[in-house]
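Reproducibility note. Readers wishing to regenerate the assembly model reported in the main text can use the exact inputs given here. Chain order matters: entities are listed in the order in which they were concatenated for prediction.
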Amino acid sequence: MKIKYLKTIKYLFLFLITTAWSLAVSAQSEATTSGQPEMADALRSNGKIYVVVTALVIIFIGIVIYLLALNAKLTRLEKLLKDSGK
Amino acid sequence: MPVPARFILHETIRNLYFHVPMWFTMILLFSISVVNSIMYLNKQDEKYDVRQSEYINAGLLFAVCGLLTGMLWARYTWGAWWVFTDPKLNGAAILCLEYFAYVILRGSITDERTKAKVSSVYNIFAAASIIPLIFIIPRLTDSLHPGNGGNPAFSSYDLDNHMRMVFYPAVIGWMSLGLWIAYIRIRIKNLENKILENN
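Running the prediction on these inputs yields the following structure tokens for the assembly.
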């Protein structure tokens, strides 16, 4: 049961990372040159909107890592409770 | 919601809804924590000790997210991941180190009562240092952040009414999330203490 949940979280994580990656890559191919000194990298395209997207991804990953740590803490507690019940 | 068009900033102006509430939430959580520290020193009740440490643990998540989103934002507007002469950035970095030191300090003391007392006192000093570090010094000198160098933030120039309609609910939302996380952590900690007591 526990392992099942962990697997789901892992897949979700992988999915999010790949999605973010594909977003960044597709934005790169759409970047057009308009004769301005701005470089054509992904985060500066479309009015730098992908900086905001990346900030959101950072916050999301931060919260997920935090939740995983909390999850580990709870698992440890459950184990402790199980051991004390014996 | 439309946002004002500005050079350099472009759409990254929308980062205001995420980067700034991180710090507001952190300050809220750390303030609640310091109130609990004072309460602990007054009453010597263990529940205040649990609260002060867990509010800090929850606040650190927002501090780290605030730092990272700030670094990203700085890279694409000011041109560098970190501006070493900027007092607000350095103040925020010192503040984060102070609170990481708090966690290490707590971890290094084994006696429960000493731990609670020492960390309460440390927390009060750390909270007092927030005020000059990120509110006073950046206003006295100058910072790349808007609203520093004499002007208070959120003047009509800095924030227009459409942005306010998103910004204020965002602040309330992130603060609620922070309080919720802290509350969950407190409950887990209380449960842990109870289990350890029974063992």
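We highlight two features of this model. Helices of chain A lie at 2-30, 49-85. The radius of gyration of chain A is 20 Å.
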